[in-house]
Automatic annotation (TrEMBL):
GO terms for biological process: thiamine diphosphate biosynthetic process; thiamine metabolic process. It comes from the Bacteria. Gene3D superfamilies: Thiamin pyrophosphokinase, catalytic domain (3.40.50.10240). Its EC number is 2.7.6.2. Keywords: ATP-binding, Kinase, Nucleotide-binding, Transferase. This is Thiamine diphosphokinase. Residues 140-205 form the Thiamin pyrophosphokinase thiamin-binding domain. It is an enzyme of class 2 (transferase). One of its GO terms (molecular function) is thiamine binding. SUPFAM superfamilies: Thiamin pyrophosphokinase, catalytic domain. PANTHER family: THIAMINE PYROPHOSPHOKINASE (PTHR41299:SF1).
Length: 235
């Protein structure tokens, strides 16, 4: 099978959506990511890492899973080792579970950049914690089937050239977005979202648990805000 699940040690919530996404897929666990595999009822075919943050219960529960142990002092993260093994086994698509949160910001940031690099190399890559999903963007057109009302952001990892966003409450048309800009945060899907750009790197993050009860017209929202401000001044 060309799609693999890789379990990392970041945050994870076993939502019905996530459980359906991992069902039936081959999996590799990186170090403490085995705990997430366990909670989802998945038995990985390989467990890699330095095993410095693994609990004794998982060691016993998964004693029959093939292990590849590495020294703590190494020049690759446990996650990168897991990615490498998945690719060696023929993976052309990766679902990375436990990709957000955790105690190490540097590790979380590296996972995001690694996902972008994998995607640029032709490996379809998705990050998830069960509630948030991350999708590296590829130059050209990117289409996302987001339910109406879904909160999403585009995190900018370099200058983005000619960025257009449609199907969103706040669309963009061929905008130049500088590296580190917050302008592309906290948009809302109004149906399928299409992101197109001609240069740069970015990551779309969709908050799957933030669907609004009903869409709100931006003009109406602005009017409500102005009325509220006026009322506050009168008081």
């Amino acid at each position: 099978m060309d799609r693999y699940v890789v379990f990392l040690g970041g945050a994870m919530e076993p939502t019905p959506r996530l459980m359906s996404q991992v069902a039936g897929l081959p999996a590799i666990a990186a170090d403490s990511g085995m705990a997430h595999a366990s909670s989802l009822g998945i038995t990985p075919e390989l467990w890699v890492g330095d095993f410095d943050s693994v609990n004794a219960g998982d060691l016993e529960r998964f004693k029959d899973v093939a292990r590849e142990r590495h020294p703590v002092e190494k020049d690759m993260t446990d996650g990168d080792l897991a990615f490498r093994h998945a690719l060696q086994r023929g993976a052309r698509s990766l679902l990375i579970v436990g990709a957000f949160g955790g105690s190490r910001f540097d590790h979380g940031l590296q996972i995001a950049t690694a996902a972008i690099g994998l995607h640029e190399a032709g490996i379809d890559t998705q990050l998830t914690d069960g509630r948030q999903e991350g999708y590296p963007l590829r130059i050209g057109e990117n289409r996302f089937e987001l339910p109406e009302g879904t909160l999403f952001s585009i995190v900018v990892f370099s200058d983005l050239k000619g960025l257009s966003v449609s199907g969103a409450r706040w669309p963009l048309s061929e905008e130049a977005i500088p590296f580190g800009s917050s302008r592309t945060l906290s948009n809302i899907a109004e149906g399928p979202v299409t992101v197109t750009f001609s240069g740069g790197r970015g990551l779309l993050i969709a908050m799957r648990d933030t669907i609004e009860a009903a869409p709100v017209d931006r003009d109406v929202a602005d009017m409500i805000s102005r009325v509220a401000e006026t009322d506050s001044e009168r008081r």
